[in-house]
């Protein structure tokens, strides 16, 4: 990177003041600042994109290792279950009918009790709501306006 100290910055500023002039120097400095800011943002975006691609490659490698491990586990489970089924089938064919291998008893399927949806009981009785002034029914906007509109006297 460029090594810019305070003395070099002062020298650059003095040369710019002489070459550009005091009237245009603020505008030029602003333009240079915005261009440097844009360049810095662009460099940061490129760095972030490179980091993301590197992380994506690492994640792909990790995904491949996990998938291969899952395949290995799946194949071992399949081989184990095949061996177990083979042993179980051999045991059932060699045993006699009265050896205690009876099917488990069947139970009736649970049926949830149905509720009567027509009967709906509120927590507060209707007469109490009416006496205390609690609204029991929702009013539409037009009905509310009509209810609270002042009465006309003729």
TrEMBL record:
Biased composition (Polar residues): 89-98
Entry GO CC: TAT protein transport complex
Gene3D superfamilies xrefs: 1.20.5.3310
InterPro entries: TatA/B/E, TatB
Predominant subcellular localization, coarse grouping: membrane
Topology of the protein relative to the lipid bilayer: Single-pass membrane protein
Keywords: Cell inner membrane, Cell membrane, Membrane, Protein transport, Translocation, Transmembrane, Transmembrane helix, Transport
Record flagged with keyword Membrane: yes
Pfam families in the cross-refs: TatA_B_E (PF02416)
Cellular compartment(s): Cell inner membrane; Membrane
Family: Belongs to the TatB family.
Assembly notes: The Tat system comprises two distinct complexes: a TatABC complex, containing multiple copies of TatA, TatB and TatC subunits, and a separate TatA complex, containing only TatA subunits. Substrates initially bind to the TatABC complex, which probably triggers association of the separate TatA complex to form the active translocon.
Protein name: Sec-independent protein translocase protein TatB
